[in-house]
Design a protein that fits this description.
This protein is α+β, with helices and mostly antiparallel strands. Helices cover about 30% and strands about 15% of the residues.
Length: about 300
């Protein structure tokens, strides 16, 4: 690990890094490429060296370039900081921890509410003048880190929670829930979804799935993406109980509960092999239980 120095980014070259010179304070990788002469291969080589983690689960869902144009970009990697023991902590734009990477390169997911990281020495992937929504090189840098570290599905899950205001802000404060998550019928629907395990977020595909077989479905039915028919069915059921629910509100509740209770669905690769569905899965498979992930 090379600790940052106070030298400005613009005077720091790839040759400086290869010769062992300390990284500049608050070094910004996107600026090094766009302004100061680093090639994309050089910045990639540096990141691979100083952020060496490679997840065994990096076959998970990936963030497509178009995904980074949405509001969910705030949950994507913004930078990383070094702890005293040399562990790197990757954090998002709100400085919420994403994962830690030890000296061996082992990746461990961290809850976004974790407060134990206090790294003072930080390296940034970009600055606010080159947000991923608007800058192609920033999206490339982020996409590479997300893919290599196997963070795609976990960050899609967090993007859902961010959109629904179910993640803490930079100061650790939980924002007020969206209006459609404060309706009187919401606790009843949450209770049913959790109790009957109807919907969940799949940590393999990065999608919200219906995992409980509908009554009218045949034995060959398998977990699948939530669709409009699922939402309409829930709206009809709630209205039959005298509750004034909307499709938009029901879809938000399904997303909120599913993203808070992830699963791991592995369809059978062979015709005679069983599908595998593990509830309570995290990006580390069993690193956290459902309760620990609930927001």
């Amino acid at each position: 690990m090379i600790k940052p120095s106070k030298a400005p980014t613009m005077k720091y070259t790839y040759r400086d890094w290869k010769n062992g010179a300390a990284l500049p304070y608050a070094f910004k990788c996107q600026q090094a490429v766009s302004r100061y002469g680093w090639s994309t291969k050089e910045i990639d080589a540096m990141l691979l060296s100083i952020l060496p983690g490679k997840s065994a689960s990096n076959g998970q869902a990936q963030w497509a370039d178009r995904d980074m144009h949405s509001n969910g970009w705030r949950v994507l990697p913004y930078g990383f900081g070094y702890e005293a023991d040399g562990t790197a902590t990757l954090f998002d734009r709100e400085y919420r921890p994403i994962c830690s990477i030890d000296r061996r390169g082992d990746v461990r997911m961290m809850a976004p509410t974790a407060q134990e990281w206090r790294a003072a020495e930080k390296v940034f992937l970009y600055d606010d003048g080159a947000k991923p929504r608007y800058n192609r090189e920033t999206r490339r840098l982020i996409g590479g880190a997300v893919e290599r570290l196997g963070l795609g599905a976990e960050l899609k899950r967090r993007a859902i929670l961010e959109r629904l205001r179910l993640l803490p802000t930079a100061g650790g404060v939980m924002p007020r829930r969206r209006a459609d998550l404060r309706e009187s019928w919401v606790p009843e629907l949450e209770r049913v979804i959790v109790g009957k395990a109807v919907f969940s977020f799949d940590m393999a595909s990065g999608e919200v799935l219906r995992i409980r077989r509908p009554v009218a479905a045949g034995e060959a039915w398998a977990p699948r993406r939530v669709n409009d028919q699922d939402v309409a069915g829930v709206v009809s059921w709630l209205r039959s109980k005298g509750m004034r629910a909307s499709g938009k509100g029901v879809a938000a509740v399904i997303d909120a509960v599913a993203a808070s209770r992830p699963c791991l669905y592995l369809p059978a690769q062979q015709e005679d092999a069983p599908d595998r569905l593990s509830l309570g899965a995290s990006a580390n498979k069993a690193e956290f239980s459902c309760r620990e992930w609930r927001m």
